[in-house]
């Protein structure tokens, strides 16, 4: 399997996602956020993400999680490392980016705060470009989630849910030996467990 093959899948899946109408995206986002609510429990540590590009927005889920007393965390990319840390997602809306990572239109804000690793989370919502019916995801090509999940191999691992739109689910994606399947996928059309 070549990097070129993965990049072609990324182009196809991003195109499918961007062809959703505003109405379709709004309704799908509402449905997905609602389907995620049963996963929230008081005191849980939940990793969410800062959406970039046309990734699924989690605003309603974040509000529900806060109301139910869950603690939310955002990914933090340490310079010169692929393994993610997670920093608290502040409740008061005063969150200031420590710095931004990335280039072009895809700047990812990096927030300061006490950092924890993925194995300290109870639930991790993982953004996807695509996912297949065996739970293998295709991401933005940075490798951060793959490295971070691989580091949980001999520890308690958080429940990992890919979240995205139905048009991002395919039968089979190319994969490599180091890829780790997610535990489930939630979209507007399905809630799959792997």
In short:
The chain has 194 residues and is α/β, with parallel strands linked by helices.
Describe this protein's structure.
This protein is of the alpha/beta class and 194 residues long. The protein contains four helices and twelve strands, in the order H-H-E-H-E-E-E-E-E-E-E-H-E-E-E-E. A seven-stranded mixed β-sheet has the order 3-2-1-6-9-11-12. A hairpin with a 4-residue loop joins strand 7 (130-132) and strand 8. The longest helix is centred in the first third of the chain and has 16 residues, at 3-18. The chain starts with a helix and ends with a strand.
Low-confidence stretches: none
Order of adjacent strands in the largest pleated sheet: 3-2-1-6-9-11-12
The total strand number stands at 12
The radius of gyration computed from the alpha-carbon positions, rounded to a whole number of angstroms, is 16 Å
Apparent shape: globular
Structural category = alpha/beta
Strand percentage lies at: 15-25%
Largest sheet: 7 strands, mixed
Average per-residue pLDDT, rounded, comes to 89
Describe the secondary structure blueprint for this structure:
Elements: H1 3-18, H2 22-36, E1 45-47, H3 59-67, E2 71-77, E3 84-88, E4 97-101, E5 108-111, E6 123-127, E7 130-132, E8 137-138, H4 144-150, E9 159-163, E10 169-170, E11 184-186, E12 191-193
Parallel strand pairs: 1-2, 1-6, 6-9, 7-10, 9-11
Antiparallel strand pairs: 2-3, 4-5, 7-8, 11-12
Distinctive features:
seven-stranded mixed sheet; 12 strands
């Amino acid at each position: 399997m070549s990097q070129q093959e993965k990049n072609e899948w990324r182009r196809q899946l991003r195109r499918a996602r961007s062809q959703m109408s505003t109405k379709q995206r709004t309704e799908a986002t509402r449905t997905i956020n609602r389907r995620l609510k049963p996963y929230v429990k008081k005191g849980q540590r939940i990793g969410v993400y800062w959406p970039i590009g046309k990734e699924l927005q989690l605003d309603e889920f974040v509000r529900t999680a806060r109301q139910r007393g869950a603690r939310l965390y955002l990914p933090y990319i340490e310079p010169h490392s692929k393994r993610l840390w997670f920093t608290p997602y502040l409740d008061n809306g005063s969150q200031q980016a420590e710095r931004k990572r990335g280039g072009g239109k895809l700047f990812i804000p990096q927030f300061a705060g006490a950092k924890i690793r993925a194995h300290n989370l109870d639930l991790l919502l993982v953004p996807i470009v695509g996912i297949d019916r065996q739970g293998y995801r295709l991401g933005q090509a940075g490798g951060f989630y793959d490295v971070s999940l691989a580091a949980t191999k001999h520890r308690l691992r958080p429940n990992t849910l890919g979240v995205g739109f139905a048009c991002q689910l395919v039968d089979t994606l190319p994969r490599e030996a180091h890829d780790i399947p997610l535990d489930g996928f939630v979209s507007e059309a399905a809630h799959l467990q792997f």
